[in-house]
Amino acid sequence: MKTIYFIGECMVELRENDEDMISRSYAGDVYNSAVYLKRCFTDTQTAVVTAIGEDSLSTKMLSRFKDEGLDTTFVFRHPDKNAGMYYIETDDTGERSFTYWRSDSAAKKVVRFLNDDVIRGLAGANMFFISGISLAVIDAQDRGAFWLKMKALKEAGVTIVFDPNYRARLWQSEDEAAAEFKQAFSLCDIALPGVEDLTVLFGVNTAEEALAFCHQYDIAEVIVKNGPESVITSLEGQQQNHPIVPVTNVVDTTSAGDAFNGVYLGARLNGRAIDEAVQLAAKAAGTVIQHPGAIAPKDAFTQAMAACGL
Ligand code: AMP
After folding, report:
1. Residues annotated as part of the active site
2. Which residue, 119, 141, 241, 266, could crosslink 41 as a Cys pair with Cβ 3.0–4.6 Å?
């Protein structure tokens, strides 16, 4: 069985609905990717590596992980921190705004749970996924230790995957983010950047420039996402352009990139060629953006993917 670990933060999502009531769900870039991967490739052991609290919302979140079929072996419980949370409001014009409570969340402490036994357990994986959001969330003083542990995984033969997923507000400065991203690009074997993730920090404006940027590093497989425009990939230096069929009824683009990442990596882990993996990933992303929120309803999603033979 193939195994992939996603490290990062899942948050409680609160959303105001029409009746001025609040509904609750769970979301976070790495969690979203894990969910969509598992829904498509049920035989792939898909795990979230994170820290949550001992509070009741954390317990409900853990149940949701299990309901989605995710492996929770490395979901740690912090004795006195809670799960992060955010609240989405939509104004009369449909514009969404977000309020976050995540600056002191349990997930910030995840590195402290990665002791030698845990690293030995993680070293059995085929892939280990890190996002720029995971890096931003980790306590700054733990980052040195984090990179040592990631190097140990790489030396053990685990394929390290990185999506920069740049969120300016999560970083103290652009320099801090750029330094962490360079570490990640230096270490990873697969990179999945969106063009916009590299614009502010590295002056990258096109998919071709994003590919050239990644080629400065020794990254075997690069997948550049460029919204509805195109996807460009490079495997061992072999470049391919993949057209994307634009979706016309876009409802909410939240987690398009996350769905793409999860399904792409699932497909690659299960032996699909790059072109097929991109087509499946693009179908997943194109489906997710036709539904509100980060996690599309399971039935609608799996039906859409079944049409592609999954
Ligand atoms: P992005 O994060 O905006 O680059 O989007 C990630 C992926 O979602 C893209 O690589 C596309 O596969 C897909 N995607 C985003 N926007 C659209 C759209 N309007 N129509 C179809 N697919 C899209």
Report:
1. 258
2. 266
